[in-house]
Every structure is written in C-alpha cells, then in structure tokens.
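Problem: given the chain below (315 residues), write out its structure.
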Amino acid sequence: MKNWTIGRLVTLGFAGLTLLIAVICGVAYQRMLAVERANAKVVERSLPALALVGDLAATVKENYINVFLHFLEKDSSHMTELEKKLETMSASLSATYEKLEALPMDETERALYETVKQRRADYRSARNAALELSRNNASGAENAITQNLHPVFVAYIDALAALARHIQDSARASSDASVQIIRTTRLVLVVGAAAALLSATIIGFAIVRRTRRVLGDLSARLSAGSTQLTAAALEINRSSQSLAEGASEQAATLEETSAALEEISGMTRRNAENAAQAKGLSHQTREAAEAGAADIGEMTSAMNSIRAASDKISK
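Solution.
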C-alpha cells in the first residue's frame, strides 16, 4: 500500500465503501421484506381470521340464546319468527365460514378449523332436535336443551376459542418476530454505519498520508530544481556578462573593420581611377605601337628596296 498512487487509494477506498454500503442496504432490505411478510401475515390473515372467528362465536351464542327463547316462547307466530331468525343466522354463519376458509391457514389452524366444523355439525344436530321438541311443546325439550344442546354448545364455543387462541398466538409470534427483526436490523445498521465510518477514516488517513508524502517528495524535487535553476541562472548571468564583454569587443573590432573597409573602399576607388587612366594610356600606346608597326613595315619595305638597289649596284 505504501507504493500505491493516490488515485488507486481513492478508487479502492470508495469502491470498498460502496461495497460495504451495498451490503448494509441489502441486509436492511432483506430485513424489511421479512418485517413486511410478518406484518402481512398479521394484517392479511391473522386479524381477519380473528374477526371472523369472533363473529362466529358471537353468532353461535346468539343462536343458542334464541333456542332458549324459542323454548320459553308459547306463541307459535313468535316461534316461527325465531326459527326464521335462526335460519338467517345459520346462513350468515355459513357465509362467515366460507370467508374463513378462503384465508390461508397452517396445518395447526386447519386441524382446529376442522374440529370447529365438526362441533358445528354436532351443535346443529342437537339444536334441530331441541327445536323440534320445543316446537311441539314436548316434555323432553328442556332436557334436550340443558343436557344435550348445552354441552355441545360449550364444546363448539371451546373449539372456536382454541382456534382464536392459536390465531392470536400466531399473530403475536409474527409481531415478536417483526420486533426482533427490527432490533436486529437496527443493530446491523449501527454496526454497518460504524464500520463504514471507521473504513472511511482509515481510507481518508491513508489518502492524506500518501498525499503528504507525495507533496513532500514534490516539494523536495521542486526545491532541488529551484536550486539547480538558481545555479543555472547564475551561470547564464555570468555567460551573459561574458557575452556582453565579447559583444563589446566585437563591436570595437567591427568599428575598426568598418574604418578599414572605408579605407579599402577609398583605395579601390583610387585604383579604379588609376586603372581607367592606365587604360587610356594603354589605348594610346597601342595606337602608337600600331603606327610604329606601320612605319616599321614601310621602313622594312624601303630597306628591302634599298637592298635590292644595292644588289643591283653591286652587280
């Protein structure tokens, strides 16, 4: 890690923090789903089931009271009204049972529900028998209610109560599970936040330390470079002074050269004038030479004539 660059430290640090936060969020999300499922079980199944079982128990108790009222009633028309009311309540019970059966149940709830249905069948048989005796004002109607119907009624109510207790226990267990999940999620979030903070601190410290080291190296390099640059500037200054002195000497030499060139230029002009005069003299000399050559030719011809004449004279 000592040789890592700052960019690599920052990249790996943020990648690690991102991964840690993603894990924390994933765990929290799973826990939230578990809480949601537990709450859904309570809200969508347990509470409606408890309400329906409570309605069943209340209706059954009212039904049982109406059977007693039927036994005590002497007016046949009132008896008929009570019987219609009992039939209406039985139909309402059947509709409530259909709603309860539509809800999801575990194995225990299903077994308790089957027991309730059996107790209902027993209760309906005993109730119908008691109503028949009560309708006919038979002497065994009271015993049919107190000895036969009442124990079956109590068993029926107990079965409904057992089913309600199991649903309550299941709802309580789901609620406790939700509370436990929430506590665990809170602990996970606290620990995850502490881990993320610690990781961020360590990574930040490593980045700062690495940055200081890099800046220190850079400062040392800049200081060394500045020293070298100062030395080079001094050398350049000395070179500039030498160059200036050389330039001054060259300037003096150029002045002397310029004067010499002017002098040479004057001599060149004079030489050109002298050359022009020499050229004129040469032209005159050539003309004189040409004239002399002509005279020599004539003299030679004359000498030849003289020689010929002398030869003739000699002969």
